[in-house]
Every structure is written in structure tokens, then in C-alpha cells.
Amino acid sequence: MLDPQAEASELSRREERPEVRVILAAPRGFCAGVRRAIDAVRDALNVHGAPVYVRRAIVHNLEVVRSLEAEGAIFIEELWEAPEGSVVLFSAHGVAPAIAADARRRGHIAYDAVCPLVAKVHREVERHERNGRQLILIGHRGHPEIEGTLGHLRSAKAFVVNSVAEIADLPMRPDEPTAYAVQTTYSVDDAQEIVEALRTRFSDLVEPASSDICYATTNRQAAVREVAAQADAIIVAGESFSSNANRLAEVAALTCPSVQLVASATDIDWSKLPRNGVIGVTAAASTPETTVQDIIEALSVRYRVILEELEAMRELTVFKRLAIA
Predict the structure, then answer these.
(1) Are residues 121 and 151 in contact, defined by beta-carbon separation less than 8 angstroms?
(2) Residue 48 is labelled as binding a ligand
(3) Residue 45 DSSP class
(4) In what helix (H) or strand (E) does residue 243 lie, and over which residues does it extend?
(5) Within its chain, how far is the Cα of 6 from the centroid?
(6) What is the pLDDT of residues 305-320, one digit of tens each?
(7) 256: annotated binding-site residue?
(8) Mean pLDDT for the chain overall
(9) Catalytic hit among 124, 145, 147, 239
(10) What domains sit in the chain, N to C, each tagged with a CATH number?
């Protein structure tokens, strides 16, 4: 407990701090697919005991990975790194069937923690291939979700496009039977532009029955767009290698003059924040809420924070837990 003089000094220090409104975007942070994947690792540890091997990052967040490592998970890049007969999990981003077949050959007890919405895209491209259609994937080359989706094609060649400009270079006839699918964490606005260009280019184009971009990506981009319209600066909590985190930053930058993507509160560039005004905060679908709270605490050290939440929409989606036996 502070003595009266120290308490007065602390009160004076607080009053000297500039005041800012901090608007938390909602929804933000973990989506249903991320929760399901993290739960799958913990359930496997509870059922089988440590170690449990996870091929690639279960989700794109180092804090989550480090936490699961502390509980007994071992993250590997390829299956050969796990001893034969090990318990192995595949990440939420999805894998090619060849990876699952390799796990069986090695005698692994394998669980696939793929997000159900990514699995939906896999079923779509397989159906298009059976129907003899050329495939176009809208997404980022080299992203694990795109790599996994490409692995679900046996004979058809798929072309990955990431901009309207790339459509003109596609080696396909305008009347060729074509279909497209979209990376679930892609920018809603960018995808719409590319889809419009595909509709113009191809006369026989089959589209997804419903949007491939997942509800969480869509909702978080919509929420940060609303916050960014009111903010002098935006902080996006997420990893630099997270697709959905980068898309949040891009969407915010369309209307907000200062946007930074930070993995943790220690990464905040204070020179990019206003002395007074409004600071918006959001978090990628793979970012734990603890990271957001750390950012709020860091802001509270330098500012007198007036905290509020802007709820753009309410999320009720829950995925069935992965069966671990």
C-alpha cells in the first residue's frame, strides 16, 4: 500500500499522461477453427500423453505454439522428424492427402485438425476436378492452406492468382470450363475484385455455392474497417507471417493513417501513436486474447485510457471438437 506522499505522486503522474480513447474491435481474436485445433492438441496430450507431434504450426501464432510446447507438444516441419508410431496432428491449415498417406505408412496415430471451412474448399476443388473443370485458386502462393488445397488435385492443374493483373496471363481459353476457390483468410475486398475479373474473362465459370472466405475473416475485416474509420491509429495483434493478421492491417490502412501489426505489446512503435485521440485495437483469428490485454496494459502505462468496445457483429459459430481416441 502506497503512503500518502507516494500515492499523491502516483496520482500526479497519472494526471500528466495524455488521454486517449481505445476502441476494441469485436469480434477479434480466436475463431472456432483455431479453438478446435488448439483443443485437439490438448486433447491428444490428455489421451495419449506427451509427446504429441504437430506438423507445422497448429495455428500461425508463436505464443500459442510456445504454450503448447510447454504442455508437451513437439512441432515438426515434416513427418520423418517424428519417430515411427508417434501421435501426430496436422495443422488447422489443412494438408494434402499424400501427407496423411505418408503418416499411415510410418505407423503414426494421426489426427487432422483442419478447419472445417478449409475442408469445405478441399471438397469443392475435388468436385470441380471430377467435373473436368480447370481450377483457379485465389490466394497467396506458398501459404500452407493453398499448398494443402493444391495437394487435393490429382490430375487437373490449378493456377494460383493473387491480383487482377495475373488473370490476363492465365493460359486458358475464355470458353474453357473453369471454377475458382478462395483461400479462407484472403482479403474480402481483393477477392471481390479478382472474382469480378474472372467473371469478365471466362464464360463458363463455376463459383462456390457460398463464400470460401471464412466467417471469422469476413467479420474481423468488417469490424476493423468500422474502427479504423474512427481511429487515428490502429494496432493489429498478430504475427507477421499470419495471412489473416496481414489482411486486417491492410483493411485498416485503407482508412486509418497509422497502422501497425505487432506480435506482442513489446513490439509497439510508440512513435506511430497519437498523443491524444483514438487508438483502435484488433486481433487476428489466431491471436489469443491475452495478447490484446497485454497491449491494453502497455497503453495504460503511457496514457489515461478510456476503453470501449465496438461490436460490429456477434459470433456464435462453434465447431464440434475433434474426436481423439
Answers:
(1) no
(2) no
(3) H
(4) helix 243-253
(5) 45
(6) 999 999 999 999 999 9
(7) no
(8) 95
(9) 145
(10) 19-30+215-311 (3.40.1010.20), 32-115 (3.40.50.11270), 117-206 (3.40.1010.20)
